[in-house]
Amino acid sequence: MVCPSCNKLNRDDAKFCKSCGQPLHPQLASTSESDQVPTPPASVQEFSELLPAQEKAGEQESNSAPEQDVDDLSLEPTLILTPDKMIAYHSRRWQREIEQAAGAPAKSALEATASESQSTVHTDIADAPTAWTLPSPYEQSQDANGSADTPALSHPPVSEDDDIPPPPPPPGAEVPETPSQAVETGEEPIATGNPEIEETKEISETEATTVAPEQEKSEAMQMPSDQPDTPASTNGFQVLSVGTNLLGRYEITQVFSETPQEHVYQVIDHQGYQHCWNCGSEQNAEGDEFCIDCGASMLNVPYIMHEYSTEQSEEASDGHGEDAHVLQGTIVNTFIEQGHTYVIEQPQAVQSPFPNGVQLLAASNSDAGNVRRSEPNEDSTLVLFLQRVHESISVPSGVFIVADGLGGHDNGQVASRMTINIIAERMVRELLAEPLTAEKDEEPAQPFDEEALKSVFLSAIEDANAALCQKNQQDKTDMGSTITGFMLVGEHAHIINVGDSRTYMLRAKQLYQLTTDHSLVAQLVAGGLIEPDDVYTHPQRSQIFRSLGDKPNVQVDLFEQQLNPGDILISCSDGLWEMVRNPQIESMLTGAPDPQTACSQLIEAANTNGGEDNISAVIVFVR
Q1: How many Å apart are CA 92 and CA 199, to the nearest integer?
Q2: Superfamily of domain 360-622 in the CATH hierarchy
Q3: What is the pLDDT of residue 474?
Q4: pTM for this structure?
Q5: What are the residue ranges spanned by the domains of the chain?
Q6: 178 vs 552, which has greater pLDDT?
């Protein structure tokens, strides 16, 4: 199938292009029988081309016998193994390495697989370059209760019928006890015999002759005399450096933590095509940049890698590990390298309450009110809203404000209008226009962090306050304005307030007042001098002690609120909340089908209840 976007050739069953990640339109399949035969994966084809003639002949013989139909793990597109398969695979690999080191011809992968399928006994794990132990109470309890949390640390039992002898140790090396002898004496055997281990031991002993007596004493204290040398105890459990590459696949990019038993790293997978991090598909091939099943990027996928020391592995297998680390993510690979066990973990992604981004519905409305119908409406509202959808993810940005010009002062309507205009101009330039300009110039838009958002919003309000103060000084006036509202960016609302206008949030059919009134009656309620319901009727309820235009350095309340689907935010002037009590606001917001209907119903209710002041509201539904 040819991709219509980049013209790259893909498999017929691919859903997404392996080169550009774009969806592929299905094409009509051929009806001939020859076209219905599935094509083997590219990795299997490449491997079969490299097989010698005798291995191909052995493959044909093994295919002719149904009882020898055993999958060779070297042909699998990924290394996600069960403990039994992992240990069996590495045992065969170690056997071939030992035979090659001894000069004997190595068995092919297919021959090793066939011989394993014909045999009814376990491969002798004495050939492994790490310390294996007999079945322990930990493993017996595991058989009774199920698999362990960390399968990479569990070891298979050694059968008493195991008649495959280990390779002879080098001359002069201490011969360990056989498993049967250890069982009779009650001791726990540790199988050795790997030439590479013994060679490392001889080198270490040579170097030990040149160290100072104090260092020899220190090393003697660290190494128990009754335990043979192991790679971990000889070389130490050292932290791998950044840039180290394991298996030619996992590159360490960061060291998270280190303890005497475990090291935790961040790694990137240069062969992410073997296992899709998003959908788990194993149908991708080398060179695919995007998953053919889900379209996810396959390049340099990050994972967490746990490295366990030899001692930690032994304690876990013996059931003596007290502080065993419980992995929280998904294990996608395990392997053993240089005697250490490695576990590749894909962390559990934090589930966002908005998997497709935040969807917003916004509306505003304002009315002069019944009592002041013949006078200018001193309220002003702002709905500045930009919502874009990229790659099916909605990213909204917006500013929603209600400004109430102070009644009884000169030009209250001018004060609220100036406040709205100045804030709108600043927020359009810095919050909305800057990312759009960067994308137009094909430059990455710098995301706003929390501090930058607060700075932009506060600066816009301070600009409005400075302009009002300057206007009052020039014209010898005394105008001002309250302000309340919020800025929405992504999943967060940044709420501001100066004066006695209010911002509420309805969540799960319950109304919460988010702002605090900067008024005399609010202080009297806080001091316990009057009841909360007295704020609606107190003769001094219109007296406030904080507003824009009053003094150059105004204190602005600003705080952040996490959004959830179904939330409703409303900012309103005192002409609304004084006429419509909180239970009625809660009921009307709960039953409103959309924000515009909610605005109209609330204003109508305020006029019905008296309409003594200008009435304004800005409402946003979060989806």
Answers
A1: 21
A2: PPM-type phosphatase domain (3.60.40.10)
A3: 92
A4: 0.50
A5: 1-39, 42-132+159-179+193-229, 360-622
A6: 552
